[in-house]
Amino acid sequence: MLPNPLPQSDAYANTLRALGTGVQIHTIGDQGRCLIQTRHFPVIGPVNLISRGPVGLSPSGSADYLRALDMPGPLVINTNNFDIPVVGKLMLAKPKSVALLSLSDPTCMRANLHQNWRNALKKAEHSGLHVTNTAYHPNQHAWLIAANAAQQKTQHYRNWPTRLLNTFASENTGHARVITALDHKTPIAGMLILCHRPWATYHMGVTTDAGRRSNAHNLSLWQAMLWLAKRGYDTLDLGLLTGPDRLDRFKLRTGATRQQLGGTWLRLPRPFWRQFPSIHAPSGQKA
Q1: Which of 51, 84, 203, 232 is least enclosed, having the fewest CB within 10 Å?
Q2: List of E strands, the chain
Q3: How confident is the model over 6-19, as a mean pLDDT?
Q4: What residues form DSSP beta bridges with 189?
């Protein structure tokens, strides 16, 4: 099946349309696909974005598609492939990498765990914690959203606006899953997974001191892996590898592999392509 990062998925397209964002999905040959989102701004007009796409094409095929793509207004491209040529584009953000975890049978997945990660999981499995997996609901899981909002402030990062998450959940019923680790009846860790077959994406996670001591996140993520694999999902996108180091280690020690993305680029008007084959002016923003 085709790679299906969240910004290229039908589930994300459903969400964007419900919020009034224009969406086009191009079929390219026999295998390729590209989701393009368009927002209209006063004075500027339409601004187009391709995030983590196109998919299903070779680097040369992706380059040919992007070169031939003709759309009114600026086009921002967050390329899914590090090897795609970037002729006629201005770099807005340096390339990042993501952790992609292959989902398979439990024996294979457990064997692929790093020894330290597996030992932490064993400890959590004998801690008496109870793990639940339920569909996200704004009221029922307000505690998770509040904890994540506080975490964003202290750790200086930004996640989706709550309106976007709530719309995803309402437009894709049952596809936003909250995995909660409970000590008796008290939540001590939680994570939210967005499902978009055949992939799923780790969207957010919070924990407490008690959750850290009992390795609740290891147990929660392992239970999520089992749940997804049993239902035919083949890849769990664990998100950007941008630090801190302990978080990147946590992701990669699941057996995930690092995939290099291609940076974020603004395509220049065609008359400038020959004069400026590519301009590297990284802003440091997250792709």
Answers
A1: 232
A2: 22-28, 32-41, 45-53, 75-79, 89-93, 97-102, 130-135, 176-183, 186-196, 199-207, 235-240, 257-260, 264-267, 278-279
A3: 98
A4: 181, 207
State pLDDT tens for residues 164-192.
999 999 999 999 999 999 999 999 999 99
Q: Which helix (H) or strand (E) holds 121?
A: helix 115-125
CA separation for the pair 160, 149 (Å, rounded): 10
How far apart are the C-alpha atoms of 67 and 49, rounded to whole Å?
Answer: 15
Residue 161 CA to residue 140 CA, distance in Å, equals 18
Q: Give the number of residues written for the chain.
A: 287
Are 76 and 263 in contact by the 8 Å Cβ rule? The answer is no
User: Which pair of structure tokens corresponds to residue 217?
Assistant: 């996140």
Gyration radius of the chain's alpha carbons: 20
- The model's pTM is 0.92
What pLDDT, in 10s, does the model give residues 44-84?
899 999 999 999 998 889 988 988 998 888 899 998 877 77
